[in-house]
Amino acid sequence: MSREKHPRSADCKAVGILSLLVTVLFFDVLFLGNNFYGRDLSIYHYPMKFVVRAAMLSGEFPWWNPFFAAGQPLAANPAYELFYPPQWLVLLPDFHLGYRLHIAVHLYIAIIGAYLLLRSLSLRPISSFFGAVTFALSGPFLSLMNTLPFFFSYSWLPWIVIFARRAIHRRRFSDGALAAVFFSMQFLCGEPVTVAQTAIILCGMGLWHFRAPGVTAPDRPKIVLIIALIGLSAAALGAVQLLPSIGHAHDSIRSRPFPYSTVTSWSMPLIRPLEIFFPTLIGSTEREGVIFWGAALYPEHASPFIISIYLGVFAAALCTGAIASRIPRAIPLTLMTAFGFVMAWGGHTPIYRILYDTGLIRSLRYPEKLALTAVFALTLLSAIALDRLIDGDSALLRRVTWVAGAMTLVALLVAAATFAPGAAATVRRLFYFSGPPLYDSFAVNVMRGQWLAAAARSGFLLALLVWWRKRGGSRELVAAFALLLVIDLAPPMNVLAPRMPREFFTAPQLLSSFPASGRERFRLFHAGALDNEMQHKVLNEGRSYWLLRNGMFPYLPALWSIPTVFDPDIDETQLLATRDLKYSMQQVRARQREWPDIFMSMSNARYFGDFDPTAGEPDLRQRQPVRIFQTAPYPRYYFADQMHGVSSREEFIALLIGRRWSRRVAFVGFPPFEPGAGQVTRVEEGWSRSSVDVEAQSRSYLVVSISPHRRWSATIDGAAVPLHVTNIGYQGLVVPAGKHHIEFRYRDPLVIAGAWISLAALMLLAAGAALSGRRLRPDVSYTPAT
């Protein structure tokens, strides 16, 4: 197992094998039409990407999304990732193929980047190969696949570190420029927690270089400057998304600090870092989480944010042995691991409370995300430790063997405990298991099988390590370790990255409840999507994504050109006015029997969706959990026949509950007047503009049931007129008597300003890289350190 004489050819071979491995493991996605569907993918990301595609192919710039929540900003909202280049694969003629590829390509980005990063640390190809597989095909990275912004951002982390490290060592402008370009991918994804973790990792890497041999006091400010310039350049490159995102945060619910309970709701349980050794320590996510016995550890969500943090049995043993042996580079990586897990504990420690009270994290949710810092450090440490084993570090090998033995013993003892009388009751008490009682014995059986499997894996590892200690390295031993890697990491892939056949993504039967054409003229009010109690009652019976698909839960209607209103705010990015109107509707709904009509009329909603309590088809693929009712065709643009002034949302609610109103009423925030009659004679709409011809008998008020935003503007016969917030969550304008042509237009100048900044930054970095073909200064005199 000596170091290769021809590293370049070995690297090419390793990259080829890694790419082939990904292709084989996800062959059904790449070539057979199966698609990823878990968690947010099918009901959130899939329709969002379809909307982005449709907007980009419309011929207009996609400023605005008219399909969700009565219209919401598109380009300014980072959740759409409009400016993220790999997402443009959804523009392929076959959207289904483009969607699959734009996810799968990040598996290649991650695994190749991880390999090259480890090789840049002077590790052998075989150690780097192991680390790359651990990074891209183990629990943490595959768990992120169902939350695409994290998955995309995390895949670029190895590339960022590679070139930032090279920029520090070699002081080449091109290296710093490439680090900034790759870092900007995270800014374009718009996921601030991943950006923050990357910045922490880069700062930690820079600080560790302060201790490198040969570094003098004048060198240290230069290292700090390099890291700072990489970060600033990345932010400038990502300004096209970063700048409007800041503006959108000011206009959306994120401008209001989240309650502390919301910020910490996905805090990692204190016991969970032990999952590094035992993958099902707190529960099994098989069968879509029906028997996840650790649900009570996540009281609000009943499941982890990162489904698995398991890196593999060999990686766990290597990391533990490396930390115990204090091998070179172990100290900074151990500190990084400790930092990541402590921050991921969130609300379970006083640290997060202190940070929240200082105002630093009031708009950032879910501390468990921060465990990615720890996972990244452990991945590097495991590959470094393997390389030292190959170098013949007998003390490390001995400690790794002891760790494998301890893991085997613990797994056997826990598995044996599941055979004891009363094991099911113990599980229920220990984990506060909230599943039905009939699941108790089933959960124990699953637990027993998984702990026996854990014992088998660690036992196999123990045998291989004993063989290594007695006979040293050999090709047979390498093959045996490769087999262990496959046995260990391959089975969970169908749980962490589940796939559905193409049939799942075709039109459900419920679509027949809508007209074949003209669907986009009226909106769907899917009340069932807001009824959490009924959702649990109907959906948890089968806990099937087929029911979500068959019920066309938002945002799925957009796939068939059906706009919706009062949607759940999955990513907490809806406009403040939209959120206020939805909350008003829910409060009126709780206190007034005849609540739907007034909100349907205000909202251009002709279709009303609600749960069907009689749905009992045993085949979940065929069950229809939702019924669609048609109401009057309430228009999107109409003249008010009543006006009433309101000064607050509370007053709006009180007025709706206290008396009956016309279906064309307008509640406004300025002194009302007696509106005249009027008629809308023509409407022409685009994605972010509309043209309306009207005829008013006298001074009138035109209501526009589109979410209000300060970037909307209106003209009457070419003259600018003010738009007023109407009915809390919509807008309107005063129209003088006569025939008029009205234009509505939405533009966000922050997108334009950000685009110019990004373009200028890209040109400057390209010019700098071209002009600095040679090193800006000779090689530094110190030995690189990780």
Description:
The protein is α+β, with helices and mostly antiparallel strands and 786 residues long. It is 50% helix and 11% strand. It is built from 28 helices and 19 strands. The strands form 6 sheets. Strands 12-13-19-15-16 form a 5-stranded antiparallel beta sheet, with no helix packed on it. A 4-stranded mixed beta sheet has the order 6-5-7-8. Strands 9-14-18-17 form a 4-stranded antiparallel beta sheet, with no helix packed on it. A hairpin with a 3-residue loop joins strand 17 (724-726) and strand 18. The chain is globular and about 95 Å long.
Number of strands: 19
User: Pairing-aware structural class of the strands and helices?
Assistant: alpha+beta
Shape: globular
Q: What is the count of DSSP helices, taking H or I runs of 4+ residues?
A: 28
Helical amount: 40-55%
pLDDT < 50 stretches? 775-786
User: Main sheet?
Assistant: 5 strands, antiparallel
Average pLDDT across residues?
A: 88
> What is the first-to-last residue Cα distance?
23 Å
- Please list the strands of the largest sheet in the order they lie side by side: 12-13-19-15-16
- The radius of gyration over CA amounts to 29 Å
Instruction: Assess the beta-strand content as a share of residues.
Output: 5-15%
Summarize the structure.
With 786 residues, the protein is α+β, with helices and mostly antiparallel strands.
